[in-house]
Amino acid sequence: MRRIRAFTLVELLIVIGIIACLIALLLPALAQAREAEHRIHCASNQRQILMAVIMYANENQGWMPVPTPAGGPVTYGIQSYNYIAIGMTDFGLLDWNWGRLWPYISHDPQVRERVFNCPSDDATLRLAADVYGAPDQAHPRNFSYCFNRQLEIQENPVATALRSSQIRHPEHKILVLEQQNPRTTVGNVNTSSPFGPVPIIPLLTSRHSGLANEGFGDGHVELLSANLFNGFDGTIDNGRVHQLTLMNNAYFYYCALTVDGFNDTGYYLSSQ
Predict the structure, then answer these.
(1) 189 is in which domain, residue-wise?
(2) pTM of the model
(3) Domain for residue 5, yes or no?
(4) Could you read off the pLDDT of 147-159 as tens digits, one per residue?
(5) Which of 49, 127, 146, 262 is 20 to 30 A (C-alpha) from 140?
(6) How many structural domains does the chain have?
(7) How deeply is 177 buried, as exposed, middle or buried, from its count of CB atoms within 10 A (0-12, 13-18, 19+)?
(8) pLDDT tens-digit profile of 8-46?
(9) In a domain, 42, yes or no
C-alpha cells in the first residue's frame, strides 16, 4: 500500500508566511482601489448637485439657488423663508424634506441624503465646524458638501440672489465645496477673507489622498489641494507675503464669483 506523505510543520509555516506576505502586499492596493471608487462616487454626487443648480437657474430666469446663510438655521432656516434652496434644522444638519432645490435632485429624501454625502466621509466622526473651523462636539453633521459662500443671499435692504450671468468664467469658479467639517449650506475655502491680519487656515478636506473634490460653475468636478488656500496676512516676511499673494490669487481665481481672476503679474482683474 502506497504511503501518502504529509506536510511537515516547517512547510506549513512557510506556506502560511507566503500567504501573509501576499495579503500584506494586496491590502494597500485594495485600499487604494476602494478610495478611488469613493473619489469617483463623490465626484458623481457633486456633478448631480451642479446639474440641479444649473436646472434651477434655467427655470428661474437665471437666478441661482440661495443656500441657508452663514447665520444659520436658527435665523434663516425656517420655512417662512421660502426662497431657501436647502433647509436646515440646526448647525450641521440638513433638512432632507424642505428646500427649493430638492426637486431638482430627487423626490426621495433618502436619495437626497446619499447625494450630499461623500462615501469617504467617516459617518462615525462627522461633526460640524465651529466658527473658527475646528470640529464642534456640540453639533453632529449629516452632509459633506456646501455651496460657495458668495451664493449667500444679500439683504441690503431687499433680499436678492446671484444670477448665473454674473459669474465670471464659471469653468474656474467653485460652486460646490467639499469641506472637512461643513457647518451650514454655505462655506469658504479658508477661515477668513484674504485681508484680515490673522492666520488663514484651509477648510477643504484632504480625505481623497490629500485632495478634495470641488464642483465648478460649468458642471465639471476637479481635485484640488486645500493648501492652495493656506496663508497668513499681516506679516512682513517676504516668504509669507509671497505665500499670501499666491493664496490671494487662488482665492480670487477659484472663489470670487463675480471677479475675472488675476493676470500674470498677480493683479486682480475685476468685472467692474
Answers:
(1) 16-269
(2) 0.79
(3) no
(4) 998 887 665 555 5
(5) 49
(6) 1
(7) buried
(8) 777 788 888 888 888 777 777 777 778 889 999 999 999
(9) yes
